[in-house]
Amino acid sequence: MRRIFPIIVLSLAFPLGCGSAPPPPEAPEAPESTVSDMEPEPPEAVEPAETPEEPPAPEKWSDMNMEQKKAHMMKVVMPTMGKVFKDFNEKKYGEFSCVTCHGPEAKDGKFDMPSPALPKLPAKGDFAALSKKHPKVMEFMGKQVVPEMAKALDMEPYNVDTQTGFGCYGCHQTK
Predict the structure, then answer these.
(1) Which of 36, 148, 151, 166 has the most beta carbons within 10 angstroms of its beta carbon?
(2) Helix intervals (H) in the chain
């Protein structure tokens, strides 16, 4: 027994004396990973909630309803014509707004055209007297305002021969 006792003691003490514990049981090997395994999984596709979309506004002014016309005025006409008028006279048209063309009634949501707030024009299109009295304004209106406004409304500028298209009387009343 004397011989067995030291062997038992040594066999128990040896692992403790080395400062290590017996090795853990072996874990099963993990499969080799690839770069694509490291990429996150894409999130599941989520169907967007169905929202009723408003159909696009018609391109022609005459085909638009009032709400579409208001939106077109804000998106197209105001920026275009605001720049045209400010470039002509920053001091006078620096505060370009709906009121500039539609008059004070625009504040109440009334946008009737031709506007009673704008200068009245001769009924028969006789602009000779106006052209003599206000040559710069008449040139500005004829060469810049009418063509740009017609374009913004997707119309042709007024044609004297056919008497069709957008012209002075689209905005101005007659005397």
Answers:
(1) 166
(2) 4-18, 35-38, 66-72, 78-88, 90-93, 98-102, 128-133, 135-140, 146-152
